[in-house]
Predict the structure of Deoxyribodipyrimidine photo-lyase.
Amino acid sequence: MAKKTSFHVVWLRNDLRSYDNAALYNAAAAAHAEPESAVIALFIATPETWQQHHMAPLKQDFIRRRVAQMQKELNDQNIALLALEAGNYEDCMNIFRQLTDAGMIALYGQTEYELREQHRDKIISQQLQDAGVTVNWYDRLCIMPPGSILTQNGDTYKVFTPFKRNWLARLHEQEVRCFPKAKSTMLFNVHDLAGHLSFPAMIDGDDSSVKWPVAEQQVLEIMREFCQQHVADYNNDRDFPAVKGTSGLSAYLACGVLSAHQCVNRLQMEARPALEQEKSGASVWLSELIWREFYKHILVAYPALIKHKPFQADTAAIRWRNNKKLFEAWCEGKTGYPIVDAAMRQLNQTGWMHNRLRMITASFLVKDLQIDWRWGEQYFMSKLIDGEFAANNGGWQWAASTGTDAAPYFRIFNPVTQSERFDPQGKFIRQFMPELAQSDNKEIHWPHKKSTPSNYWPAIVDHNEARKITLALFTEVKKSDE
Ligand SMILES: Cc1cc2nc3c(=O)[nH]c(=O)nc-3n(C[C@H](O)[C@H](O)[C@H](O)COP(=O)(O)OP(=O)(O)OC[C@H]3O[C@@H](n4cnc5c(N)ncnc54)[C@H](O)[C@@H]3O)c2cc1C
């Protein structure tokens, strides 16, 4: 009887890349050291669980396209990628049982921080170890892993600025290291597993996300070009949605097509002197990558967040008005506030929204319409190509004044003055609202002054009135605290 080939399995989840992939690199190194052993990458599509997480169809398509592309890329590295279709996380254990029977000797993967995922990985680790399979997890989602940046008393930072200071001090102490591309000497024929596996091959994407390239080299080139040519202007341009002033890398960072290590490594290569100046474009961009890590640290330290609890416990008692009609108008971009409506169209049409607009639309939903921030959080998740729990939850709680933000709840964005400030000529509004294209640069921010144009809708709320109601809702819960 032919000797069974043993194999190491790399379970790809939020690290859909071949460069700087600790799990792939270590698995290939281990396989190389053992004669007659191979490395296989594995991806398991879990549409049922994705749906429970409200993952946008566009993001699902993006992941499927990236995995299909990665199959080709890894093939050139002599690594077969087995992409399977399962329903949910419960099926994953069955897949691993079948793989163990077929000759799997070790599992490698990158840590995930969400509660359900942690629970899933714990059970799988235990069962595999009981079956004699070695399990290796790599905590590489952040440059500074959660729990590694703490106050002097050993607590989690609850405010960003001191967290950032500590994070930067740690960066100065160490080099940001990226793993080289993994290469295997022996390509495993995944068809040999056919008799062992009862799960079908992953279904292809529907190509709804084709505007987002998925080839790894292309993504690395976008990142390099941003660091070489645009990052210097980031501090000036990043708040203006009509300008291409941000990197546009969020979808890649969210799915791990790109790692934060790669971004910072490149930033140091291209702009090291600028990183010494606090207000330079490079430093401000680095700050955004630190925000990304801050929210992940917060999520791990406060698991109640994943159960939809507000960070500031007293705000759980706010009596949101939750008017469904107003919510629908917001979702559809029919609020009568042009900057809000244009932003929601950007989200609905492209699956992405500029950061300044995420702040404006989130603030509008919560503080002008008095709708529970969790409604908006879920809606964003169901549309965003870069939808990612920690950043989305952090952003929503920031906007709702229920989160870690140091700014007081009574600072409420005025959507019209935000529009005048960050889209002064109405260029962004015009791009998404052709019905307002003829408005002049002043009236485009508030077209209701004389009378609402016939092809636009009236404002659904009065901002000044809404502000008063919101302040009262907050005062009620803050007072009852005392
Ligand atoms: C209400 C709200 C919801 C949000 N939801 C998400 C989300 O689901 N997924 C997501 O990746 N970002 C989210 N953000 C943060 C931010 O809006 C996006 O990361 C950014 O717009 C992506 O564009 P970019 O890649 O060009 O960013 P750049 O400005 O080039 O920033 C570089 C990277 O830093 C990270 N980043 C930037 N700003 C933030 C931030 N405020 N918080 C955390 N990470 C940040 C992202 O990974 C981003 O790709 C949200 C912000 C708000 C206010």
Observations:
- The chain has a mean pLDDT of 95.
- The chain has three domains: 1-140, 141-179+215-301, 313-481.
- The radius of gyration is 24 Å.
